[in-house]
Specification:
Elements (H helix, E strand, L loop, with lengths): L2 H14 L4 E6 L6 H12 L3 H14 L1 E7 L1 H13 L3 E4 L1
Antiparallel strand pairs: 1-2, 1-3
Helix pairs in contact: 2-3, 2-4
Length: 91
């Protein structure tokens, strides 16, 4: 395979990849575990187990990436988290 052909393949693969963002959820002293879990299930389509694990990570580590994807998909989900009184941002 020629170098020119290899470079063209690399360029095509990179152009098909979309930039992924993350919703990061931050700890607070206001919301209960149940509220955080219920909100993650509703907003991020988490299973109860995923939501519980994320809530524990947020509690002990201070933050947790709760969803990864394209910005257009994450923006309404992050808005739901914020509207529920949670602290989150898209990075």
């Amino acid at each position: 395979m020629s170098t020119k052909h290899k470079n063209l393949e690399d360029l095509q693969v990179r152009s098909k990849e979309k930039s992924l963002n993350e919703i990061v959820l931050y700890n607070d002293d206001v919301n209960t575990f149940d509220h955080v879990i219920d909100t993650l299930i509703a907003a991020c389509d988490h299973t109860p187990e995923q939501a519980e694990q994320c809530s524990l990570i947020v509690h002990y580590k201070g933050q947790c990436t709760v969803k990864t994807g394209e910005y257009e998909d994450l923006e309404p989900r992050c808005t739901l988290l914020l509207d529920a009184g949670l602290s989150a941002e898209i990075i």
